[in-house]
Amino acid sequence: MQSFCSKARKCNAEAINETLQYSVQYHGFGPGQQDWGFVEVRQGAHMFWWLLYVAELSVDHYSERPIVIWLQGGPGGSSTGYGNFEEIGPVDLDLHERPQTWVKNCNVLFIDNPVGTGFSYVDDPSLLSSNNEQIAQDLVTLMKQFYDVFPEFRETPLHIFSESYGGKMAVQFAYQLDRAVKDRSIVSNLRSVALGAPWISPEDSIMSWGEFLLNLGFVDTKGHAVIQKAAESIQTLIRNNQTKAATDIWKNMQQVVTKEAIGIDCYNVLTPQKFAILQYGEDDLHIVHATDNLHKLDQLMRGPVGTALGIPSHVLWGSQKDMVFDALHEDFMKPTTKVVEKLLNDTDLNIIIYTGQLDLVVSTPGTVRWVEKLRWPGREGYLSAPREGIGYKGVLEGYEKCYDKLSMYWINRAGHMAPVDNHLAVQYILEKHVLV
């Protein structure tokens, strides 16, 4: 049920993975030590992972530095593609070194999740995940196999970082992985789960759009009323558990927002626009102002990267992404706030939430709304905790509010992709919660 490949760092890759016919000639793509491979998480469902080892090794072994798992959004967005080359990996889309790469200080494990995303694939569309629980179980299965191959990482601090819809998947994954640890079906030193621009409460996010745009001057009162009416119709559907219909209306609402706000970039409202917008989740990785980059990423992943990693010829990066979104159509608008509450009430994990002030899709007001409604023993303590500024070289980069296991960060001058827009603020989060 499993297949792993590895570069010849520790062993012969052919011995590890005869199925995919990898050989020791494959040394990865880009700088640094790497391992990668597939896990058959269910029969016919193949999940791809790519581990980039910490670049600046100040210890005796990689396992002495923490591991960060990166989960992209969408659903259908590729961690190995967008997360790696557009956000936090060692090189960017033009293959220039990224000075602020996360690989400088920790091991980063990119996972193409759910199955059907990026290099991950299914033998039959019926094997695509249709709910968050299945997605999480697949990830737990992958991690079991990962630790079997790399037992030295079992005691290494593990942190799950996520973005957008990845946040929805991350909370369920963290909860089920924590349960597996307690059940002793896996050994893992899971410490925290971090949610960037997390699609946790679609209702709260969408209900904030009209007011957000009105307050920033992107719409007038008439436009606000039009957007608010559409949002309220979605709210009604969600509360009546008609989430499939809510997703359909949500797609239409994006066009309403685009029309009323005249082509605004929903992922960073201050990004200059050319009166065009891509639909979230329906094109590669919900990036709205970089159509050219999407094509460049396709070419890179399907060409040099796939060749360097020895990806089988029948696996075409991103070819099943639309089916991934469609399979989760009904689950897309379901909230996962209850899962966040379970993490706070039933685990010892640290919960980290960060939001970019210029993000509309998962706006700061909407995020604050659901966070403050969470039911857990520390709720009153969190609400009364001080909100403090985050400064770097005399510049205010954002704000933080922390109490017990819950930490919330407001990031200045950042939209949906905070690690790109304000890496200094995100680096502060890493230093406080991961690099300790």
Protein architecture, described:
Strands 1, 2, 3, 4, 5, 6, 7, 8, 9, 10, 11 and 12 form a 12-stranded mixed sheet that branches. This protein is 38% helix and 18% strand. The chain folds into 2 domains: 1-201 and 277-436, Rossmann fold, CATH 3.40.50; 202-276, no CATH class. It has 436 residues and is an alpha/beta fold. It contains 15 helices and 12 strands. Helix 3 crosses helix 4 (165-182), helix 4 (165-182) packs parallel to helix 11 and helix 6 packs antiparallel against helix 7 (221-239).
Q: Which word captures the global form?
A: globular
| Poorly predicted runs | 1-25, 275-290
Q: Given the structure, what is the number of helices?
A: 15
As a whole number of angstroms, the C-alpha radius of gyration is 21 Å
Helix and strand run:
EHEEEHEEHEHEHHHHHHHEHHEEEHH
Count all strands and give the number. 12
Judged by helices, strands and strand pairing, the structural class is: alpha/beta
Q: Would you identify the CATH architecture of the largest domain? A: 3-Layer(aba) Sandwich
Helix content class? 25-40%
Name of the CATH superfamily of the largest domain: Alpha/Beta hydrolase fold, catalytic domain
CATH topology of the largest domain: the name is Rossmann fold
Residue share in β-strands = 15-25%
Short key terms for the protein model shown above:
38% helix, single chain, disordered N terminus, alpha/beta, 12 strands, 436 residues
